[in-house]
Amino acid sequence: MSNQDSQKPIVPSQTTIEQYTLDDMDPIRGYPELRWAGKRPFRSTQYYPAQLKETYGPEVDGNRNELYWGDNLQVMSHLLKRYTGSVQLVYIDPPFDSRAEYQKKIELRGAAIAGDLSSFEEKQYSDIWTNDEYLQFMFERLLILRRLLSDSGSIFLHCDWNQSHHLRCLLDEVFGPSNFRNEIYWYYYNKMPDTRKGNFPRSTDTILWYAKNRSSCTFNALTEQRDEPVKQLVRKKLDGKMVNARDEEGNVMYRMAETRVIDNVWRLSMLQPADRTENLGYPTQKPETVLERVIKAASNPGDLVLDCFMGSGTTQAVAMRMGRRFIGCDINLGAIQTATRRLINLGNELRVQKGRQATLLEGGQAAYAGFNVFNVNNYDVFRSPTQARELLLEALEIQPLQAGGLYDGEKDGRMVKIMPINRIATRQDLNELINNFNYRLFEKRKKENPRQPVEKLLLICMGHEPDLRASLETQVDYDLDVEVVDILRDSDHLQFRRDSDARLVVRKNKVLITAFYPMNLLQKLSVMKEDVGEWRELVDSVMIDFNYDGAVLQPTVVDVPEDGKLVAGSYDIPPESGTIRVKITDVLSESWEGEVTLG
């Protein structure tokens, strides 16, 4: 499928809201279903618009890969318009419901931050869930993924012991037990064993493989080199049966086998902190060797691969290297920045190896190295949901409660619930509250004070349907006192992040960055009493578009230094340049953009 339409910014006339009915995505009937508190059907979704922000690398055969920043449910709803039945392979490494908060250690360019490193670990995402919302979260996404898959497509779901039993039941329900193909065990033999937990150390993850249609599923058998050749019997088919082959004298024949067929136990090393060739320091990053097997087994060159929990972009990097097209998305801006940098470097590496203009891999296969970066539904207020919660609690002076509970905090006697951020809150978003209210406590309060509301609530949202409050009050058979705060409408004075700043000058046919002030990063460093030698130590990358069209950044200069080196800060201006747009990204993945005009 051509991606040419995705090369143009989406304009309002193209973003009319469309409703997708998902009746054909109902769970497979006639089989057992997994039940949980508050399980609800997911039979429709709507088209969410996307905004093209950046373009990198060449278009190949009318195709350019796509990365999306946003809630993957909204991203996939957007993709339904063009990609229904077109994705050959889905690999996802979703949250494991591990009850953990994952953080990334931040280092300045040139030298690591000294002192207490743990105090400067940037939270990437939280894997803490309320009751059964994890299962509802995965259920809805699996239904859309099934719709996106082609008839010959497959899904590989990476998980561990926390939820693998529930996730297999969900996959049976959505795809049908007959479409189960394999339960793959990744044995990471190089993990340091931990015997303090009173059980056998865990050294495996599980990858669940289901086909869209088992009868037409793509599968390429894989082999690997043995450590040493082994002697094996030679087998042949005789009268429909496999028998031992014999020579003319009747002796059983043998051969020395140097390879073995890869089975469902994959003995592959995990990434280690000392690994400087692949490890990007991103939490839960998986090694490329795991993705190489998945992509080789279940797709062919030119096929489309989707990872909607892409993290550091391992799936996309391996797909690019193996000649597949790809789509990736993540709700965390840090993941988008990390994956973008990784794919830029890989695209440059492929071009250096094959020639500057070459777009071919070994065997003449096209290398799909170009990609676009989109926002979905103007998802650009907060860098991550975790950051949003913390900033809102601080800005609105809310007393926070422990993460993972039904409520996020308390303010002036009201229990506070922060609704989904960076989009309009809908009646459907109230289901988490309705299904998880403590109704036993409500009944007790009603008996004690029949004329008083059983709960006072404060809903924090960024835009909402007009009947949101009334809908909650009418769907619960108890008296609730509900207030709604729309932070976009009611709290314009609140500042949720401090804007960065920079100084650009043009001198002697060069554009110079003379200063850069990433305010959030500088604030963190001041708390740590760290001294910064120069602004370049704070910068992760610099990208420059010398003919900016006012809408989409198309950099011709991409300064992403490796091995702790510093960005140049001075860049030659090519002839016939126009408006110069500069994007500076700091080590927290927060960016500043500015322009200079020649003449």
Q: Low-confidence segments, ≥5 residues, pLDDT <50? A: 1-17, 112-119
Helix content: 10-25%
The tally of structural domains comes to: 4
CATH architecture of the largest domain: 3-Layer(aba) Sandwich
Extended strand count: 30
User: Mean pLDDT score, rounded?
Assistant: 84
CATH topology of the largest domain: Rossmann fold
Query: Which class of the largest domain in CATH terms?
Result: Alpha Beta
Q: Tell me the name of the CATH homologous superfamily of the largest domain.
A: Vaccinia Virus protein VP39
Strand order of the largest sheet: 3-18-4-17-16-5-8-10-9-15
Cα-to-Cα separation, first versus last residue: 43 Å
| Oligomerization | single chain
Number of helices: 11
**Rough shape?**
globular
Task: Report the radius of gyration as a whole number of Å.
Answer: 27 Å
Q: Which structural class matches the secondary elements? A: alpha/beta
How would a textbook summarize the main sheet? 10 strands, mixed
Strand content: 25-35%
Characterise the protein shown here.
- The protein has 599 residues and is of the alpha/beta class.
- The chain is globular and about 95 Å long.
- It has four domains: 239 residues, Vaccinia Virus protein VP39 (Rossmann fold); 38 residues, no CATH class; 102 residues, Trna Endonuclease, Chain: A, domain 1, CATH 3.40.1350; 97 residues, Sandwich (Immunoglobulin-like).
- The protein starts with 18 loop residues before the first strand and ends with a strand.
- 21% of the residues lie in helices and 30% in strands.
- The strands form eight sheets. A ten-stranded mixed sheet has the order 3-18-4-17-16-5-8-10-9-15, sandwiched between helices. Strands 19-20-21-22-23 form a five-stranded mixed sheet, sandwiched between helices. A four-stranded antiparallel sheet has the order 27-26-29-30, with helices on one face.
